[in-house]
Amino acid sequence: MPAHVRQTLSDRSNQIWLSYASVWEMQIKVQIGKMKLGAPLADLIDQEVRVNRLRLLSISYDDILKLDNLPMHHRDPFDRMILAQTLTGGFHLVTCDSEFSAYGVNLFW
């Protein structure tokens, strides 16, 4: 992760959100062995919420409906939901995935 991204994420004046879509995807990857963690996912997220003021972003009805307006540049359903949430919520998205730029979202990396 680039230094300017780490610095921005550690700046206590910024709110950092984690989509439940990301939590869902991580849990699946842990279960099928594609992701190894040093502790249970719930414990790691709870720690980040407590220590780094991470906020969890629920998936709303509007987020789901926003999917209808997204072109199919990206086919991953979790990434598409994160894109929809970024657009409906007006967030900046922290990612190095170049496919996200095709959607006109505010990218930060």
Provide a short characterization of the protein structure.
This protein has 109 residues and is mainly alpha-helical. Helix content is 47%, strand content 11%.
What does this structure look like?
It contains 5 helices and 4 strands. The strands form 2 sheets. Strands 1-2 form a two-stranded parallel ribbon. It is mostly helical. About 45% of the residues lie in helices and about 10% in strands.
Please describe the topology of this protein.
Elements (H helix, E strand, L loop, with lengths): L2 H8 L6 E3 H12 L9 H12 L2 E3 L3 H6 L10 H13 L2 E3 L11 E3 L1
Parallel strand pairs: 1-2, 3-4
Essential attributes:
single chain, 109 residues, mainly alpha, Rossmann fold, two-stranded parallel ribbon, 5 helices
Number of spatially distinct domains: 1
Which percent range fits the helix content? Answer: 40-55%
- The N- and C-terminal alpha carbons lie at a distance of 8 Å
The main β sheet shows up as: 2 strands, parallel
At CATH level 3, the topology is Rossmann fold
Q: Please mark out the parts with pLDDT under 50 across 5 or more consecutive residues, or reply none.
A: none
Strand content: 5-15%
